[in-house]
């Protein structure tokens, strides 16, 4: 069944999970393949991915046509970077580097037309008048102000970036992994208690399922570049081992 941003918002608001995929690779074909897996949403990553803004109309249209909701991680939390993907077909944004609650309010305002916000009229294609807006918690300041962030009106959820958060908290490295995992669990618990949808960035289904078991409902189960590399390496390993066994 095709999903739209209202369906996702309603499911998150009811405490139900939505499962999606994260894309760093460019191209409409990539987007179409990911969306046709049955994912509820596909996140196109403009911050660290290879996709350009010029590709967004075709990519977001392909995702929507396949029945999933096109979301975009913006390049930055700047006003223009939040608004551009929404004008080019995104039905929601995941905004990185949000500092605190006041910053989160500015981000929400950038996604809403007046009088509710300051978004400029100029949508070119697709998208939504009331897009999903998710603030990333990946800095020490955002974590310190988490209760206030969770209370920001109009915010559809928070999404934790474990990598940057670990750096910001000084918890980077294998020897600090247990401490970081405790922090992640605490964020999930606090958001869930506040009735705010929450997700934690994951690279595989098992990791994502662990977060979902604790209450996360914004569930990204795989990243295309990581999964592609793992699958291709596994096929190569199988092919080479059997070729050796056959003496060829």
Automatic annotation (TrEMBL):
All residue ranges annotated as the HpcH/HpaI aldolase/citrate lyase domain in the record: 20-228
Single annotated GO MF: lyase activity
UniProt key word Lyase: yes
UniProt xrefs under Gene3D superfamilies: Phosphoenolpyruvate-binding domains (3.20.20.60)
Keyword annotations from UniProtKB, A to Z: Lyase, Metal-binding
Claim: Heme is one of the keywords in the record: no
Family: Belongs to the HpcH/HpaI aldolase family.
Name of this chain's protein: Aldolase/citrate lyase family protein
